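[User] I wish I could look at a protein chain and see how it folds. I have put the entry right below:
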Amino acid sequence: MSRDLAIDLGTANTLVYAKGKGLVLNEPTVVALDSRSREVLAIGTDAWQMIGRTPGYIVAERPMRGGAITDFEVTERMLAVLLRRVGVSRLNRPKVLICVPSAITAVERRAVKEAARRAGASASYLIEQPMAAAIGAGLSIHEPVGNMVVDVGGGTSETAVISLGGVVAVRALRCGGFDFDASIQNYVRHQFGVAIGERTAEAVKMAIGSAAPYEGEQQAEIRGREVATGRPVDNVTSIVEAAVDCLGDAAPELAQDIMFEGIHLTGGGALLRGMTQRLADATAVPVHLVDTPLECVVQGAGICLQSFDRLKRLFTQDDP
């Protein structure tokens, strides 16, 4: 008997939730390929460990960028392997609900659905990440009350105001945790004339990175290659400004609700030290980091699987 699945097909990680079972897979969205034969050599954690460490003919790449598929064939093959890992076969073809950024185009939405169907799904549906995050955070999305979610992912960041089961205001950026890593790389290049890889930059971010100053700021020792300098960019400011703008787009009554209830912060980027405080200072609104920021989106999609017919209206609709 098929077990329906919810998938958070993220730029950084792919999470799979099985109906009635919970989270069954969490792997980096990375594929290692033989560039000569295009053979898939590894996916997920195994492929992630190869980033920056492969010979010339082996390429470790991320088939998702900014929440969109950049390589359809590779994404389909990656999904097929991941779905096989959770029990999908020719005799067991479940419905699949996929979480996607609200900013992707109709063509990109169709590409995601088609990739899932060709990877083994009997049918595929999409739900926008801010809506799934709100459901996963346990917010009262069907009530006539303003709820605000800020979801900072690996490749996208989205701010949405939700009321009565619909998104009434949204601001989306193709900017997220990977851009934080790139900013660290650019800063080290500009400040010290040293090039570091994305894995090193991510390690620095997790060890000492912060969205706001804090007492007892720490230092980290890094090793890299000397290069010419470049200029850093502050991506956190862009995300915070988008949240402020989204709050300003909301009707006064909904904005008042949010000022009382607060903003709910989700996504891997939400774990950056100081992000909660930076957002609260900019909006003058309380900010709550949800209990499971990394899993919140896929958990919300999983709840939709449990009440599929009742919540199906929240899914994105195909364009005519």
About this structure: The chain is about 35% helix and 25% strand. The chain has a mean pLDDT of 87.
